[in-house]
Design a protein that fits this description.
Elements: E1 2-8, E2 11-16, E3 26-36, H1 38-42, E4 57-61, E5 64-68, E6 81-85, E7 90-91, H2 98-103, H3 106-119, E8 126-130, H4 135-146, E9 151-156, H5 159-162, E10 172-175, H6 180-188, E11 192-197, H7 201-209, E12 211-219, H8 232-235, E13 239-242, H9 250-265, E14 274-278, H10 282-290, E15 296-300
Parallel strand pairs: 8-9, 8-11, 9-10, 11-12, 12-13, 14-15
Antiparallel strand pairs: 1-2, 3-4, 3-6, 3-15, 4-5, 5-7
């Protein structure tokens, strides 16, 4: 099979590699499409090398399409076939496209469950979504509205990427990069009850100053920086929570994923934009992902019927 193989720092190439063989409680999936996520680049060297990177994907198992969120090293999803735990594949509705199904996958689960399961959003509460121009934030803004938020504010550095969210759940947008604390306080209308934060760093500090007493701030990433200086006074009567897909029960994720697929098909949840990229162009896709492309990049292996030279 053809696969992207990582052999060490700077040593990554498309190779002809032996296909995985399933062991106990494992399954081999024929990959139709595999989503590229920031964590794929960050943790590429963590597995025993050589290995095939990639986690989530859409594939064929027992003659039907399935979604899988995680693979078993060293056989990741950036290949014609991937190895998965037999409990993970979720059967997909026939009507949903592979791109849309992946847009509400890892990123969608983080955006949805950080609100519903971690923050336990209550009807009428005010929500701020930082980093709203990315795939996680795109779903989180819509999830906040669908879960009953009273006010939803989307914030990011790219105003042009934020503006479409005004038609998909956001009551207001805030362009970050200036006096963020003041801008967020102006948009808060009394303080945010819930903050969804994939950025960390200075944006988190600014968001704290715009939060209400009793607020829950959910940290789901650190794309703006790995550290933040927070005073004890700023934390008073507020909670900082963390959310991660890997630490969330499989049953919780499956229920949320199936719900989001139904909402997509009903026209109530708009998936983030995506782009199919032939697996042969993985290096270009990796560079674009590192630069935050504001869309879901989907790698398509040569054996997939979705593969088209572009």
């Amino acid at each position: 099979m053809m696969a992207v193989v990582c052999r060490g720092p700077g040593e990554i190439a498309l190779e002809d590699r032996s296909a995985p063989v399933a062991g106990p409680d494992q399954r081999v999936v024929d990959v139709l499409a595999a989503a590229l996520n920031p964590t794929d680049l960050i943790h590429m060297l963590d597995a025993e090398l050589p290995s095939v990177p990639g986690n989530e994907g859409i594939g064929i198992l027992d003659g039907r399409r399935v979604y899988f969120e995680r693979t078993l090293a060293p056989f990741g999803s950036f290949a014609d076939r991937a190895l998965v735990d037999q409990t993970l594949p979720v059967p997909l509705p026939e009507e949903i496209s592979a791109g849309d199904a992946l847009s509400v996958g890892i990123a969608g689960l983080a955006g949805w469950l950080s609100l519903e399961w971690c923050a336990q959003l209550r009807a009428g509460e005010s929500v701020l979504v930082l980093g709203a121009s990315g795939p996680v934030g795109w779903v989180a803004v819509q999830a906040a509205r669908l879960l009953g938020a009273g006010r939803v504010v989307a914030a990011a550095r790219d105003r042009s990427a934020l503006e479409p969210l005004l038609e998909h759940g956001a009551d207001a947008i805030v362009e970050l990069g200036g006096d963020d604390a003041a801008a967020l306080r102006d948009a808060a209308n009394g303080g945010f009850d819930v903050v969804i934060d994939p950025l960390f760093g200075e944006p988190l500090v600014a968001a704290l100053s715009a939060s209400a007493a009793g607020a829950r701030l959910v940290s789901i990433g650190a794309s703006a920086g790995p550290s933040a200086t927070i005073t004890r006074a700023a934390l008073h009567s507020r909670r900082i929570l963390t959310y991660g897909n890997r630490l969330t029960p499989t049953a919780v994720k499956r229920a949320a994923y199936e719900k989001m697929c139904r909402l997509v098909l009903a026209g109530e949840l708009e998936p983030a934009g995506h782009e199919l990229v032939p697996l042969e162009r993985f290096a270009e896709a990796f560079e674009r992902q590192a630069a935050h492309p504001h869309r879901k990049l989907v790698l398509v292996p040569p054996a997939s019927p979705l593969h088209v030279e572009r």
